[in-house]
Amino acid sequence: MQLSFFGLAIVLGYLIIRKKNFFFGFKESFLLGYFFYIFLPIVVIVYYEDFLIDNFRLFKGYNKLDLYEVYFLSIASLVSFLTGYTFQKKKIRFINLKDDFYPSEIIFVLILFLIPTFINVDHSNPTIIIYILSSLLIYKSNFNDFKKITFLIIFLLLIQYWTVYFSGSRRDIIKLLIIFLFFLRLIISSNRKFLFLLCLFSLVSLIFVFLNTYNRSNLEWDFKISAVEFIANYDFMPTFDNFMYILKGDEYLFGQSLFKILFAWIPREVWPSKPFDTNLLIIQKHYNVFVGGSSQGVGLLGELYWNFSWFGILGGSFILGVLAKNFDLSRYEKLKDSQIIILSSLSYLIFVMWRGSITTTIIIYLKNIVALFLLFYLVKLIFRKKYKRL
Prior knowledge:
Structural class: mainly alpha
Distance between the termini: 72 Å
Radius of gyration: 21 Å
Order of helices and strands: HHHHHHHHHHHHHHH
Helix content: over 70%
């Protein structure tokens, strides 16, 4: 059964990113999240269950029938995603932003976003925006492709190094990698060169992730300790454990967490019974066998299932497939700066959504992207008036 699952998952993954459609954006990021939050935990459980039992006293193993349900639902998710991707034929325009910006305007906004790196602002993600804007400047420059790629790499390594030793966010390291790959694919047409750089800087990024963990936890190198820390603190196993708990339950949220974006602005003081996000709700319902904490993920499939059972997984995956195709259809256009900013940021959003909660992730994303464009249009208004006077 396990081999059938692994084989089907690999075949479906290949069909989703088959060579003629290989870009790097929404669908690739979706598969990266699938690998990290579904495929990898199953590999660990199938081949290293004894290690988990020996090192996590609360872990007693999972029922085979429950695991078979995960196999079925996760494969169904890939099939539904692929169906949605194939079904979508014509680009749907959700936001009609088609603006270019002067390099001076981009640099000015970039400098403004340096401020939150030194002053803590809730839900701000300045590091990611700074790298997007830096990459946009490089992409728009008159440098040849080799120089553009070189500068993209230099800025990637510098900002990842900053993230390791000053920011402390492991997920930001992966977000930066995904943004780098998005811009890299805009420049490189050769699949061979792109795949080489993808593998190389994925490895480099993983090294930065491990350095981040050791820097934050003051750990000494030891294989067993490192393996236990990896499983406990890297989301994928704790999130999978919460997903397994949700599958065994018979309570459903019926859209409460998915549609929270419509009423999230209402203060809890005004509405005390306002529904919680799944990352808070799960710790009230389930004691995770791998890790504690005040906030835990349930995974993309876990949240879709918790809301609408398997209908949620099939419907949600189909919609994501449609959005992925919409993303890929955009690459055939002559992209404006505003479109590049949105597409590059969407490329990492789906990976972050794989942990959950979905609504909170989208709200934080929207806060940052709306703030960015408000600044751009304000700066554009000021700069263009100045140019007219001159």
